[in-house]
Design goal:
Layout (H helix, E strand, L loop, with lengths): L1 E5 L4 H12 L3 E6 L8 H9 L4 E4 L5 H10 L3 E6 L6 H6 L1 H22 L3 E7 L23 H18 L4 E7 L1 E3 L18 H10 L5 E4 L11 E2 L1 E3 H16 L7 E6 L5 E2 H12 L5 E4 L14 H7 L7 H18 L1
Parallel strand pairs: 1-2, 1-4, 2-3, 4-5, 5-6, 6-11, 7-10, 8-13
Antiparallel strand pairs: 9-12
Helix pairs in contact: 1-2, 1-8, 3-5, 5-6, 7-11, 9-11
The structure holds uridine-diphosphate-N-acetylglucosamine.
Uridine-diphosphate-N-acetylglucosamine (UD1) binds next to helix 6, helix 7 and strand 8.
């Protein structure tokens, strides 16, 4: 059974590709290597014991994509990860974000319709909920006005997918991820941020290894027990597993409706300080950090109600925050020992 994974050399895509290969699927990876490295394919092969097909294609290039779908005419499903994902960058380059994130999805859907590929899993985000009106946030929570062009692309892409599903025999699942963290237990796969990391965990590990002087914690005056923001940190391997389960649900026609949405988180909220303390505990490293003013656009707290994913997908996060942070630390040490 052949599955197309766009963005398959990226952070979540590489872990998902490895899990699919381990389960015996044939995987075609498409990536423009805009935010990833080709050697990740070797790592995927080391982890999974087999190698995906690879095409260096930009999903915005419709004719390249059409050729790929013709070449692999036995593709049965698509997992679409390929997208830009930096919130700050999306504010300074909104058109680049809209063009890349929307066009790539539209092109994929067009190719799927033409070649009668009926199943797609899409990478969405808890960012669609904005500042939640209640917690934990479930899938019925209203989607609120996006606070960044990045967040808006996720909302619009969900809408595009929903409309495409309604007008054809396509079936789609949008997975709304909370905060993906961690790395593969082998330390062969993990997050590879380009330049200064925007996200908390790579910033923590780069500070601990000495690549960054200190971590800035954005705000300690939030309305939370310790004053720092609360997030639901989900291990990337659990997240990869959720994609496998979702794609199998579609392939086996177990979906209840043609378009479904699931929260993918742990259900537990942790503050930034709790994450820092947990990191210090598992790594044995003292982390240099200071409090600085709040970061624009950050929400106070969000964590998932995962009942629907637990009951419908039969999926539940298995890893703790400590395990995730320990794996990120192992990955960081492996990266720096290579240089
Ligand atoms: C953001 C996006 C989310 C996206 C995720 C991964 C929004 C609202 N959120 O999540 O959709 O999936 O990135 O790309 O669009 N922090 C620090 N210091 C740092 C970095 C972060 O204190 O150097 C704090 C932040 O203030 C926040 C927490 O750590 O409270 C997590 O931040 P981050 O890892 O950037 O993820 P989000 O902003 O939650």
């Amino acid at each position: 059974m052949k599955i197309l994974v766009t963005g398959g050399t990226g952070y979540i895509g590489s872990h998902t590709t490895a899990e699919l290969l381990k389960k015996g699927y044939d995987v075609v990876v498409v990536d423009n290597l805009n935010n990833s490295e080709e050697w990740i394919l070797d790592r995927i092969e080391q982890v999974a014991g087999s190698r995906p097909y690879f095409s260096e294609i930009d999903c915005c290039n419709l004719s390249d994509l059409k050729k790929l779908f013709l070449l692999h005419s036995d593709i049965k499903a698509v997992i679409h990860f390929a997208a830009h994902k930096a919130v700050g960058e999306s504010v300074s380059n909104p058109l680049g974000y809209y063009k890349n994130n929307l066009l790539s999805l539209v092109n994929i859907l067009e190719c799927m319709q033409e070649t009668k590929v009926a199943n797609i899993v899409f990478s969405s985000s808890c960012t669609v909920y904005g500042e939640p009106q209640y917690l934990p946030v479930d899938e019925n929570h209203p989607v609120q006005k996006a606070t960044s062009p990045y967040g808006n692309t996720k909302q619009i892409c969900e809408q595009i997918l929903q409309d495409a599903v309604a007008s054809s025999n396509l079936k789609g699942i949008a997975l709304r991820y909370f905060n993906p963290v961690g790395a593969h237990e082998t330390a062969l796969l993990g997050e590879l941020p380009r330049g200064v990391p925007n996200n908390l965990v790579p910033f923590i590990t780069q500070t601990a290894i000495g690549k960054r002087k200190e971590l800035s914690i954005y705000g300690n005056d939030y309305d939370t027990p310790d004053g720092t923001c609360i997030r639901d940190y989900i291990h990337v391997v659990d997240l990869a597993d959720a994609h496998v389960v979702a794609i199998e649900r579609l392939l086996k026609n177990n979906n209840k409706t043609a378009y479904e949405v699931f929260n993918i988180g742990t259900g537990t909220g942790n503050s930034v300080l709790e994450a820092v303390n947990a990191f210090e505990k598992v790594s044995g490293q003292k982390l240099n950090y200071k409090f600085v003013p709040r970061r624009d656009g950050d929400i106070t707290k969000v964590y998932a109600d995962t009942t629907l994913a637990n009951n419908e997908l039969g999926w539940k996060a298995k890893h703790t925050l400590e395990e995730a942070l320990a794996s990120s630390w192992k990955w960081e040490k492996q990266l720096s020992s290579k240089k």
